[in-house]
Amino acid sequence: MDDSRSAIRAARLFDGVTAHDGPVMVLVDGGRITDVDLTGANPPEGVAVTDLGDVTLLPGLVDAHSHLVFDPNGPTEQQMVHDDDVTVLARMREHAARALRAGITTVRDLGDRGYLALRLREEYANGALGPQIIAAGPPITRGGGHCWYLGGEADDTEQAVAAVEARARRGTDLIKIMATGGMSTRGSDPGGAQYGLSELRAVTRTAHGLGLPVTAHAHAASGIADAVAAGVDGIEHCTFMTPSGVRMDPATVDAMAAAGTFVGCTVVKPREGMPDEVLRTIEPYWENQASMHRRGVRVVCCTDAGINPHKPHDVLPGDLVYFASQVATNTEALVSVTSLAAESCGLAGRKGRVAAGYDADLLAVAGDPVRDIGAIRAVRAVYRAGLPAFREP
Asked: I need a labelling partner for 53 at 20 to 30 A (CA). Which of 92, 219, 278, 323 fits?
């Protein structure tokens, strides 16, 4: 028996782009996929086979917008100001484990405190079992601005450029900047810009010169337009708030489509008890996300996990079901949390596909999510780099 190689069988496959009915066998060696067989052939001699039965095999899901430091059930600002690193790291490990159990094998952390996501990234890189972490470190924000309590305050161009350089030295995978205010920080105005075009250009130019992509948190239409003009690689939320309500700007959307800018569609569902000002944004938000998708913008379904009790760190499968009902077909929705999300995280060629040469990050679910997207929540097995992270008894 060859202990270095293994094989996984399933009844169906969604490979990150295309669905395949009929038997599939994935061959794994050293944490990477070496072959995908759709003929029903026997495995190579001496290779152990795990037959998962009547399941659909998919790439492990990619949550392109999460916050592992945030306790969804806790007072975020108070915890970030007062909890020590040991406490926060322990919480982050629990959150990451919960994500992995749900089939989320890659987490892009878009805002931590004190670079703690980088520490967790190294733990998993050095052998602990957990999702792949892509880390931005503390987001760059104005003094007292949105998420100021994460420690990334920068009040002018010089400070913002220095903040980019500091993150590059620490080894972040990307830069996150709060181009506008946000909804979850007291006193912050999501409809107002925090940085102007010249500042955003300086940040983006510096980051790109250091080989780092930039994604911008942006709710206000003016902030979105400036961030796109500055050449950022992604826009998070992309709400298009204006003084007269949520209004999509077609010229900005066309510019995003032409540039290949990613939009992180952080799923928000209307709920009883929501403030009226939030409810008024939700319907046009979804209309805009669907319109951007139709116009060729690369819209990625993601969660903003951790920000409130409705956003636990395993929420992506449930959010995906809602995303599919509002924006895309089932197949397009699955692409958005696999191959497209991997590309948005700079992991094209490694993640988001079940294909030779890719990491053996795999999710098996009961049923067929291409026909019934709700099946994505029926997790039967999860593999991270070929190792079983969860399997239903």
From this structure: 323
**Which tokens belong to 273?**
């008890």
Residue with tokens 């997207």: 373
What does the alpha-carbon distance between residue 63 and residue 106 come to, in Å, rounded to a whole number?
6
Q: Residues near 392 by Cβ (< 8 Å), separated by ≥ 6?
A: 379, 380, 381
Closest CA to 290 of 235, 337, 327, 345: 327
Give this prediction's pTM.
0.97
pLDDT digits 0-9 by tens, 107-122:
999 999 999 999 999 9
Looking up tokens 């026909």 gives 371
Task: Give the phi and the psi of residue 327 in degrees, each rounded to 5.
Answer: -120, -45
Q: Which residues pair with 28 in a beta bridge?
A: 6, 33
The phi and psi torsions of 78 (rounded to 5 degrees) equal -60, -45
Q: Helices (DSSP H) in 195-295: which residue ranges?
A: 197-209, 221-229, 250-259, 276-294
Question: 166 is written with which tokens?
Answer: 């500091």
Element (H, E) at 265: strand 262-266
pLDDT above 90 for 277: no
- Tens-digit pLDDT profile for residues 42-61: 999 999 999 999 999 999 99
- Burial of 213-250, coded b for 16+ CB within 10 Å and e otherwise, reads bbbbbbbbbbbbbbbbebbbbbbbbbbbbeeeebebbe
Do strands 214-220 and 175-178 pair parallel, antiparallel, or not at all (unpaired)?
A: parallel
